[in-house]
Design brief:
328 residues, alpha/beta, nine-stranded mixed beta sheet, four-stranded mixed beta sheet, 9 helices, 15 strands, 25% strand, binds N,N,N-trimethyl-histidine
């Protein structure tokens, strides 16, 4: 993978912190000045946002995490026996709840040398790494703080490598961007390496709708937190109560579209960007979450220079794992 050194967490050079803040200002300016307005879902994941997402994964309506974990628990033994990885690289690691299932299987398989979690949320990543170091003192844990849409360098690792991208976070990327990200991975993989992808499957729109509009309002809080973060980190003055969470499933695009809608006309001042105004009913889109079937995933991995080896859907058709290798 390419040139620029990412942050190997634990050492916190100020340069990347400053750079990511400037990147945030640029992204927010472009997003809020575009029509329609949008904000990147990567800005959900400050510490508060990562905590709220953990809460979402426990919700009865949010089936994705449970469905994927059940699949992993059932299939990881076979996957590790076929891939024989010594290093696990995890994109968008978050709290690493599913990671332990994989590391335990690698240990049982006899080779678990390194774990490289990659995540945009520095504090969360460092906390997770600390916990894992205590539980897995025999495994070298090298967290990498990076936005997975940006290029990053991986530390020296002993192969074969299993790269995992779980939780259906691939769903945040429209097709072209998803192919670019997977192609980036494919270029760094050697023939012995494998890629494991978790994907949420298309299903009854009602079931999907409930997963993004939970009765306790945690998803709404997670969504609104992106504005609270801009108030905290960019000294913006968003009146949070003027905005309403909205999430709907488009059967045409096979995606959930999440928005924050202005209940009344709003003027917001962001010192480094200027004044942003919203008319009543105007929204800012905060997330897309695409849903898939086998053909859609085969299309993505195929276009990215990967070859799908195994398609592992849950019996109830809710979620699937796909194992692939580099096609070059
Ligand atoms: C972490 C991107 C997979 O899209 O389901 C959860 C984030 N957004 N509830 C998803 C999310 C609203 C989640 N991903």
């Amino acid at each position: 993978m390419t040139d620029r050194p990412a942050d190997v967490a634990g050492g916190t050079p100020p340069y990347t912190v400053r750079r990511s803040r400037q990147q945030m200002v640029r992204d927010v300016r472009r997003g809020l000045m575009s029509n329609p307005k949008e904000l990147s879902p990567k800005y959900f994941y400050d510490e508060r946002g990562s905590e709220l997402f953990e809460e979402i994964t426990q919700l009865p309506e949010y089936y994705l995490t449970r469905a994927e974990r059940a699949l992993l628990e059932t299939l990881i033994g076979d996957i590790v026996r076929s891939a024989k990885p010594c290093t696990l690289v995890e994109l968008g690691a978050g709290s690493a709840t599913k990671t332990r299932i994989i590391l335990d299987a690698m240990r049982a398989q006899g080779c678990a040398e390194s774990y490289v979690p990659i995540d945009v949320s520095r504090d969360f990543l460092e906390a997770t790494a600390l916990q894992l170091r205590a539980e897995y003192s025999d495994i070298r844990i090298v967290p990498v703080v990076s936005d997975i849409t940006e290029s990053f360098t991986l530390p020296e690792m002993s192969g074969p490598v299993l790269v995992v991208f779980l939780g259906s976070t691939i769903g945040n990327f429209p097709r072209e961007a998803a192919i670019r990200l997977l192609a980036h991975l494919a270029r760094s993989m050697s023939p012995a390496d494998r890629f494991l992808l978790g994907a949420d499957l298309r299903k009854d729109p009602e079931v999907i709708h409930r997963a993004y509009n939970d009765s306790r309002g945690v998803t709404a809080a997670f969504n609104l937190n992106i504005l609270e973060r801009l108030n905290r980190e960019l000294n913006a003055d968003f009146p949070i109560d003027a905005f309403e969470h909205q999430a709907s499933y488009s059967t045409g695009h096979h995606r959930v579209e999440m928005h924050l809608v202005a209940r009344r006309p709003v003027r917001v001042m962001i010192p480094e960007i200027g004044e942003i105004s919203f008319s009543e009913g105007e929204s800012v889109r905060t997330e897309l979450s695409y849903k898939y079937d086998r053909a859609a995933i085969e299309d993505l991995v195929g276009q990215a220079g990967l070859k799908m080896e195994t398609w592992m859907p849950a019996e109830d058709g809710s979620f699937a794992l796909a194992l692939a290798r580099s096609d070059s």
